[in-house]
Amino acid sequence: PTSPDDRRRRLRREVRGLGFAGDQRSRWGPGGWAISVGPAILNRGSVNTCVRHNSGSIVDLSFGSPAVARRVQGWRVLVGVETLSDHRYIRFDVSAPPSIRPNSVGPSAPQQDGPRWALGRLDKEALELATLAVSWLPASEGPVRVEQEAEWFGVSMSDVCDAAMPRALRRPPRREVYWWSAELAQLRASCVASCRRCARHRRRRIRSQNHEDQERQLYGLYKEAKRALRVAIHRAKVAARREFLETLDADPWGRPHRLVFNKLRSAAPPLSQSLRPDLLANVVAVLFPATEYTTPPPMAPTGVASSSLSAGDIPEVSPAEMRTAVFRLRGKNTAPGLDGIPGTAWLLALVHLGPRLRSLFFACMVQGAIPARWKTGKLVLLKKEGRPAESPSAYRPIVLLDEIAKLFERILHARLVEHLERVGPNLADNQFGFR
Question: Which PANTHER family does the record match to this protein (predicted)?
């Protein structure tokens, strides 16, 4: 398995490599071996990848196997980015292989799991104004139509979110590293400015008599700025690490724990989008077997008609019940449902839309109906460790519902618990709650 032929066969699949062409030859392997693998050069253009004081060259090479080279896009050299080195950063994108590519490909393809909003850029004042404007719209006369009213809430809240915050991009921007600070940002800006002044001076066609002296002076200032930035980064890393170690015992589940797990967490697409279509269909068919619809038996006691309850027997949803259900939205950062509306938006919007939503909940109870969109969720598959990937038992399903459906569920849950405790029969002593 470690023979050159075996390694060559593996490299022909999907491999990419980057390196310095002026490095030792032994690191690149024996002569002729790389050519026999059949790699393709990924470099594009004629921009220098290594820039020194008086010269520049293209010595940083990117190779990829033919399977990878066909999926490489946007290979470029980042010219205006400070690297604290003579070598410049190289960036390129690699698209997903056809076996795990989602149904929609391309940068303009719509997302399959519904819209998303950038909650970190929420404008609370704009959301309140948009919610107030929506609340002025009159409701339809007559009995509440639960399907139509639920659709109105979904469309209206989507418009409110669009007015209060931008849509989230498919790839969120990278966060600042934990040791970054405003002082480092200022030093980096100064370093980049010194580098650009030196580069502009070097590109001048009309040169004065002391051109070389000025160039040496500017390059010296650039080296000093680069050295100051490098030293400041080292000190910031040491100080941040010391701070993390000091707070580890006091808060073991705080920032150090989140930092480690964010580092270890993969950035792969959801399993429901990355699995092969045939495997995904098999997993869903096993986890959710298709059975014939059966009518559940009546739950009313013997001798009591199921239609004996009237609208007057069902109490309306009170503001206190709504506040209790909404209270759980505070401080939560869970994934939203298929509509993408975050819980924070509902928390702020219900200040003006609360009475109308309570009327909808009450109508659902009286009519014994739940809107179809509240029963439609987003399927998320979680991989179980130690199970074969081709087996449906290796995946645990979770269905994410919309936040408005969760609010209705909490109100129903509270009423059922109150009825069991007050009227009975109550739950057994060895049963702790239910869903």
Answer: REVERSE TRANSCRIPTASES
